[in-house]
Amino acid sequence: MSQYPSLDMWNVQNFTGGTDIFGEKLRSLLTEATAEAVNTSKMFATRKVNLDVSRTLYGLVQCTPDLSKFDCNSCLEAAFSYLRTSQVGSRVLSPSCIVRYELYPFYNETEPLAPPPLLSPPPPPIPSKGKKTTWIAIGTTGSAIIVLLLSSFLLWRRHKRDKEEKSTSDHEVQLLHLGEGSVGGDYSCDILQGQEYQEFPHFPLGIILEATQNFSDENKLGEGGFGPVYKGILVDGKEVAVKRLSRTSGQGLKELKNEVTLISKLQHKNLVRLLGCCLEGNESMLIYEYMPNKSLDFLLFDSTKRSKLDWKRRISIINGIARGLLYLHEDSRLKVIHRDLKTSNVLLDNEMNPRISDFGMARIFGGNQNEANTKRVVGTYGYMAPEYAMEGIFSVKSDVFSFGVLLLEILSGKKNSRFYLIEHGQSLLNYAWKLWCEGCALELMDPVLVHSCVPTELLRYIHVGLLCVQEDPVDRPTMSSLVVMLASDAIVLPKPTEPAFSVGRVVNLAQSSSDGKVAASKNKVTLSSVSPR
Which listed residue (340, 358, 399, 446) is catalytic? Predict the structure, then answer.
């Protein structure tokens, strides 16, 4: 019996009216279906029960036929515990068993054939050769008619089933193709196969074109490795952000599949919310809730806009990001490593609450898995932990390192990569460490915080940031510890050690074109340098 990896999906609509009765009838229905399934060779059973005059509850359970009765029962009981019983529909899929319930008939109900009418005893045989031949002809003809009727019925049922299967929309088919060449994770393309539109809504292309004014430049919010992002306004006035897959993006399709797989399963107030998708023609798009204050870097690194981020708002943003990462690492059903946490991937809603976004590079860890190794290092230099950038080793501590860099950037108002170029090889991390050792850590503060900053809080936050960027991953705290450190000034923080080596990009200024512009490299290799402490 294998219960992992498992997947649960649910209808987003909550059940209303008589939830206690609904729960009782659902348990009874699944219990009866399980009892039938474990006692049949098919290991399969369906049940339905009337909830009220207008609604019927349908349930289905199934195990793989290689299981024993005991293992089938155990697998189904474990699956029941993951059902979202407050919703109008839910399902759990695991390698050895599945369970599902809905308020509509999602399986074919085969009505039992009516028993043949009882025939009266045949009359006594008449010793007549002609009549005997007549009775034989009648019997043969009747049997042929019955066989013909049964065959026609079976062919009709098969044709109806095939027609229903072929009615799967092109959008669902395109979703299945997204699984090819998946980037990491423990799931295949089958994850997207069974999703209902209630769970993952589809937006018609015409609505998106109208909402974004045909992807006008005025509505363009920015562009990343995935492709451009546009603001859209739906017909009901709702504002959305449309992430459009660039046709020239070599890894965008993989990122889209990975992002759909992950973010559709994650729900937290500090994670960006995915509203649906649009897969029509040659377009592949994800539709998110719109963040009116854009990304954190848009405000933080702008000389005029950064004044909107006073001290109270900055610590609120830091704590929100920490809680979002804690959810990904420890509190969600999936253990997720983001791998690309940076200021441009932190969005701000209308109340300036942070929302972590862009899960295209994220990876799912198994239950007891703590770290992994990859030959394909992805992410952003300046935020990468050294063990990941140089050896491809990543873990929750890789995200902790990125969080530490981001925290120091928020406190200083300086970007780590730009600081590297300005300060002649000294990264923001090394600079913060130097000030800390000299007892001048307050000099790291962004000048716009002079009137709103609480010095003792600033020193504690710098201390926490330095703990996050230590060279040895073992020395870095976990996100659960960090959330406590940031929230309480009564905790004695451990002494930090020197930050890790600085890993930054090098731009080759020697190769320049005749007009004085830097020549662009034709390959996609990024050169990196490592500067010692």
Answer: 340
Q: Cβ neighbours of residue 336 under 8 Å, at least 6 residues apart? A: 262, 266, 328, 329, 359, 362, 363, 364, 365
**189-289 topology per CATH:** Phosphorylase Kinase; domain 1 (3.30.200)
Domain residue spans in the chain? 7-108, 189-289, 296-531
The pLDDT of residue 311: 96
CA–CA separation, 343 and 256 (whole Å): 21
Measured CA to CA, the distance from residue 398 to residue 470 in angstroms comes to 11
The CATH T-level fold of domain 296-531 is Transferase(Phosphotransferase); domain 1 (1.10.510)
Fold of the domain spanning 7-108:
Killer Toxin P4; Chain A (3.30.430)
Angle of helix 396-412 versus helix 455-468 axis, rounded to 10: 150
Residue 52 designated active-site: no
State which amino acid sits at residue 533. R
Residues 78-105 have a mean pLDDT of 84
Against a cut of 0.85, is the pTM above it? Answer: no
Q: Residues 194-230: pLDDT tens digits?
A: 343 335 678 888 899 999 999 999 999 887 667 789 9
| pLDDT tens figures, 344-399 | 999 999 999 999 988 878 887 765 666 666 766 777 878 988 888 888 888 899 99
Name the nearest CA neighbour of 284 among 315, 316, 303, 257. Answer: 257
Task: Report whether 408 contacts 462 (CB < 8 A).
Answer: yes
pLDDT band at 501 (very low <50, low <70, confident <90, very high): low
Q: Which residue has the higher pLDDT, 458 or 263?
A: 458
Q: What is the amino acid identity at position 313?
A: R
> Are the C-beta atoms of 53 and 42 separated by less than 8 Å?
no
Strand order in the sheet with 90-93: 7-10, 90-93, 97-102, 56-63, 44-50
